[in-house]
From TrEMBL:
Species lineage: Bacteria, Pseudomonadati, Pseudomonadota, Gammaproteobacteria, Oceanospirillales
UniProt key word Flavoprotein: yes
GO molecular function: deoxyribodipyrimidine photo-lyase activity; DNA binding; FAD binding
Assigned keywords, A-Z: Chromophore, FAD, Flavoprotein
Matches recorded under PROSITE patterns: DNA_PHOTOLYASES_1_1 (PS00394), PHR_CRY_ALPHA_BETA (PS51645)
Name assigned to this protein: Photolyase/cryptochrome alpha/beta domain-containing protein
Note describing how the cofactor binds: Binds 1 FAD per subunit.
Binding of FAD, residues: 241, 254-258, 292, 295-302, 393-395
């Protein structure tokens, strides 16, 4: 007999409710714990995961395998094509390894939730009990509602309600479980190791570390490194978070934890607790710690929306009328944006940062998204896909939420005519052109003012892809047309 823990986007042993509960039950019953990860490559690709995200997940798996081995828990890594293939693979593993319970943590995306419901429907008649645990957010998904039971559509009231709920019931985390010790563990490990030989239909894979990939080497993929990064951020940088988080040249202005959160190498609850400790113990850093907690709640907000509005997982805009916007078909402009050759230095620096590092500063994610969807009037889906294909921290909830916010198709109290000028943003947040010089070397030798807005021809650097005034007028006309159609109907 054994308990089966199915890892998905929760690749850690600390604050993992599914793993912790399985280990507790195993110790009470004198049984073993087996862990599995079922890699659905085709499904990931259909969801626009790129190599950066896939490789980072594999590196996180490599560390997870070592962490679990220290707990005497073997990890089976099996290849399947799609989510649909995960269900029979799980049921077969249960049968072969004599497992009668599956423990897993909930995921907010629609396909993932539908898969879990299908698993429960097929497992229960076979005598296999499935337990799903709240894990991906600070509060249970879909639980932050108005007094009338309806969802919040705007962030600020959502945040206030969530803060009240957390104040009433503070965030709790689970410790790493104690090692699982049982006499048959060694023979069980040998049995698992021989599964791929005894059962040729099982495709077992070994996670890789990708030590030759320069992007991967930028991002820690072990639990120890994740907690170290959290500790570093909560040491001194968090004191400056409120004032420095919008300046992309400041390497310590943000936490740099998003890849670890996306892969579940670190839990959002652990982050909240670390910030809460700073907020309560250090008056000088309290406001900054609270500001970071607000960003963690933004992340939660987008996850709650995925559960409450399933159409968001189907590529549909939150504001339904915006599906009628007449986006431009401008492949050359799109390519220049993708390559960081728009002729707008801060936009180009941001896009090149993405390709070079697999990550982009949050303010620049907003700027580049507004530039594509507003000034160029190119469908925000194009940008959303591009980000998913290149980000190490690729995550549907945050990426979709951010793009729809920028394109004014999502949950946003600000009118559609909100714009972020690439020149004004550079003047405010990269006044010396330091960040621009780092990623757009063609401009590095120019004075700071000209790095921000070059005057005339600069060798090797393109002219602007669009006139900002004309782009704004074009966008205004497109949104007004949709607004008029919506009013008329």
């Amino acid at each position: 007999m054994a308990q089966l823990v199915w890892f998905r986007s929760d690749l850690r042993v600390h604050d993992n409710p599914a793993l912790f509960t399985a280990c507790q039950q195993a110790q009470q019953e004198g049984t073993d714990v087996i862990a599995c990860f079922l890699r659905p490559l085709e499904q990931w690709q259909s969801h626009n995961w790129g190599q950066n995200r896939i490789r980072y997940t594999e590196r996180c798996l490599l560390d997870l395998k070592e962490e679990l081995e220290a707990l005497h828990i073997p990890l089976i890594c099996q290849d399947v094509a799609t989510f649909a293939g995960q269900i029979p693979a799980l049921l077969q593993l249960c049968q072969r390894l004599n497992c009668h319970q599956i423990f897993a943590n909930e995921e907010p995306e629609l396909n993932e939730r539908q898969r879990d419901q299908q698993l429960i429907a097929q497992a229960e008649p076979a005598g296999i009990h499935c337990q799903l645990f709240h894990d991906q957010s600070l509060l249970p998904l879909g639980s932050v509602l108005k007094n009338d039971g309806t969802p919040y559509r705007v962030y600020t009231p959502f945040r206030k309600q969530a803060q009240q709920m957390i104040a009433q019931q503070p965030v709790q985390t689970f410790p790493a479980p104690a090692p699982v010790i049982s006499d048959p563990q060694q023979s069980l490990q040998l049995k698992i190791d021989s599964l791929s030989l005894d059962q040729p239909d099982l495709v077992i894979f070994q996670p890789q570390n990708y030590s030759d990939d320069p992007i991967q080497q930028r991002w820690p993929a072990t639990e120890k490194e994740a907690f170290h990064q959290l500790e570093l951020f909560c040491g001194q940088p968090i004191n400056r978070y409120k004032t420095q988080r919008d300046f992309p040249a400041d390497a310590k202005g943000t936490s740099l934890l998003s890849p670890m959160l996306a892969a579940g190498k670190l839990s959002v609850k652990s982050c909240w607790q670390a910030a809460e400790q700073i907020r309560l113990s250090d008056p000088a850093a309290a406001e900054s710690a609270s500001t970071w907690q607000g960003e963690l709640l933004w992340r939660d907000f987008y996850r709650h929306l995925l559960v409450l509005y399933p159409e968001l997982s189907r590529n549909q805009p939150f504001k339904k009328e915006t599906s009628n916007i007449q986006w431009r078909n401008a492949p050359d402009d799109l390519q220049r944006w993708q390559e960081g050759k728009t002729g707008f230095p801060l936009v180009d620096a941001a896009m090149r940062q993405l390709k070079e590092t697999g990550w982009m500063h949050n303010r620049l994610r907003m700027l580049t998204a507004v530039f594509l969807s507003k000034y160029l009037l190119i469908d925000w889906h194009e940008g959303e896909r591009w980000f998913m294909q290149h980000l190490v921290d690729a995550d549907l909830a945050s990426n979709n939420g951010g793009w729809q916010w920028a394109a004014s198709t999502g949950t946003d109290a600000v009118p559609y005519f909100r714009l972020l000028s690439p020149y004004r943003q550079a003047e405010r947040f990269d006044a010396q052109g330091e960040f621009i010089a780092r990623f757009v070397p063609e401009l590095a030798k120019l004075p700071a003012k000209q790095r921000i807005q070059p005057k005339g021809y600069v060798q090797g650097y393109p002219n602007p892809v669009a006139d900002l005034k004309e782009g704004k007028e074009r966008m205004m006309a497109a949104f007004k047309a949709v607004k008029s159609e919506s009013s008329a109907s």
